[in-house]
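User: I'm curious what two different proteins look like when written out as structure tokens. Can you demonstrate?

Assistant: Sure. I'll show them one after the other, since each token string lines up with its own sequence. Here's the first protein:
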Amino acid sequence: MRTVIAGGHGKIARRLERLLSGRGEQVAGLIRQPEQAGALLDAGAEPVVCDLESAGVEEVARHLAGADAAVFAAGAGPGSGVARKETVDRAAATLFADAAQRAGVRRLLVVSAIGVDDEPPAGTDPVFAAYLRAKGAADADIRARTGLFWTILRPGRLTDDPGTGRVRLAPSVDYSTVTRDDVAAVLAALLDRPSAAGLTLDLVNGDTPIARAVAELG
């Protein structure tokens, strides 16, 4: 199996790359800067330089050609402003989905965030509000598509604590934290679960082993 990950240098992406390469699968990560390549090679992934803020759909589709699955794990990052929430968290996600369809890659996982379907509360930091709205718009675009076996995963507040292997995974859960290790492990499990296509799932740490939580989706 070959999986291509957008945002290949990100914290979740590199964890996922290690998991997939560790089980003998081919994995490639799209990165913006050539100097990020070494970190992907260390994770067992093929680095592919492709800036999703400037690339066209045909270029991205070429990088996706021959893949069995695609994962959008890109984000503008905490130091970015309102404009890049739009160009990365929304526009790059829809571009990546367009390219997956163009390349004939039907399985698509998208890393989003809990609560993005709701309008941000009054007083929310403007940059964070722009992030939530961008993620919500991207998710709506993905859900409206036919011909893609998409799954949208919405983690709670991310931490770098060691993974627990136990989660709450459902269309709606109470807001809480989740480790990046566990997010990556759930993504890897969802890639093996075509029956999860068409689901939007919240994710936080909990009491259910990941394998069982994913199996219980149907």
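Here's a second, unrelated protein for contrast:
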Amino acid sequence: MPLSEHQIRLVHASLPRLREKLQPASMTFYENLFAIAPDLRPMFREDLAGQGMKFLSTLNTIAEMLGGDPSLQTEIDDLARAHSGLGVRPEHFAPMGAALMVTLGETLGAEFTEDLRAAWRAAYEDIAARMSAAGSG
């Protein structure tokens, strides 16, 4: 289900605050992921600092493209191919999404309202569905 204009505006409005806290949030994301799905740990390199920054930077880039940027699907297709080559399967997206929601809540605190949570969840589910479809093609 596509995101509403309101949801896109909420996600976009939260990006500057997330960028402020990018460094600590990047490591927190992986701590949360491995607490939720420890079986995914072997899929990642030992040093996660760079990986975490790359994940949140990519998330930021994609979030900025929400709302009609014509290159969004190309970005998603490229990510899907790269992740598929690393062994990422559709069932991995659920724990990643759960870890993202926990991390966003921890990072944004009281700013992570129910509306913003719903907007980020919708954005993540849309992107994950597109990546799953593109990765299986």
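A detail about the second structure: DSSP finds six helices and no strands in the chain.
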